[in-house]
Amino acid sequence: MLYIVATPIGNLSDITIRALETLKQVDLIACEDTRRTKKLTSHFDINTPLTSYYEHNKFSKGQYLLGLLQEGKKIALVSDSGTPGISDPGFHLVKLALENNIKVEPIPGACALIAALSASGIPANRFIFEGFLPIKPGARKRILSKLSNINKVIVLYESPFRLVRLLSEIKEVFGDTEVTVLREITKKFEEIKKDKASIILDYFSKVKVRGELVVIINATEI
């Protein structure tokens, strides 16, 4: 059995009872960063062994984990935060398990994408999630240009080091459309800024940006 376990995106109290029960009773927890997951398991007195499963070992470690699953082991897959498979390599292991008739069971919970949409004040019945855009400016601009023709709400993840550049590109491609930036969702310094792209760009150009970010473009107004 492979359990897909959502973990908190910041506030440890957001973990579900079912997630805790699952992490305690499995044979192994596969996680992106064992040090980060260890903080979670230690906080809740969970002593289940951890193993790393991340972008650069997903193929070799995936085969190893598949072998354990075929032996009858129960494994929980977690990401550094939120729901596995959303902008992380977790889907490779899930795909491998399904292709080999291993039962997969989701343990739902926190997800930055959904949390951000729920607090954005934007109708989210139809939206596009693009995750992290490419680092190279040319590739980023090409994707943004394509998205500008779709007329839907667009959700992105971004690094604090590239936020200002992204906001500048959004203003250039989409015009002065409505943008919402959600920073450090569920954490102590949680911040939500919603306004025209020019105003949001001006604000974040004057402060030191830290933490994890979700950017929502209300492209339905274009």
Structure characterization notes:
Strands 3-2-4-1-5 form a 5-stranded parallel sheet, sandwiched between helices. The chain folds into 2 domains: 2-107, Tetrapyrrole methylase, N-terminal domain (Cobalt-precorrin-4 Transmethylase, domain 1); 112-221, Methyltransferase, Cobalt-precorrin-4 Transmethylase, Domain 2, CATH 3.30.950. Helix content is 36%, strand content 22%. The model has no long low-confidence stretch (mean pLDDT 95). Helix 3 (58-70) crosses helix 4 (90-99) and helix 7 runs antiparallel to helix 8 (197-205). The chain starts with a strand and ends with a strand. With 222 residues, it is α/β, with parallel strands linked by helices. The protein has helices spanning 17-25, 34-43, 58-70, 90-99, 112-118, 137-147, 163-174, 197-205, and strands at residues 2-5, 28-31, 50-52, 75-77, 104-107, 127-132, 153-158, 178-183, 191-196, 213-218.
Task: Summarize this structure briefly.
The chain is of the alpha/beta class and 222 residues long. The chain folds into two domains: 2-107, Cobalt-precorrin-4 Transmethylase, domain 1; 112-221, Tetrapyrrole methylase, C-terminal domain (Methyltransferase, Cobalt-precorrin-4 Transmethylase, Domain 2, 2-Layer Sandwich), CATH 3.30.950.10.
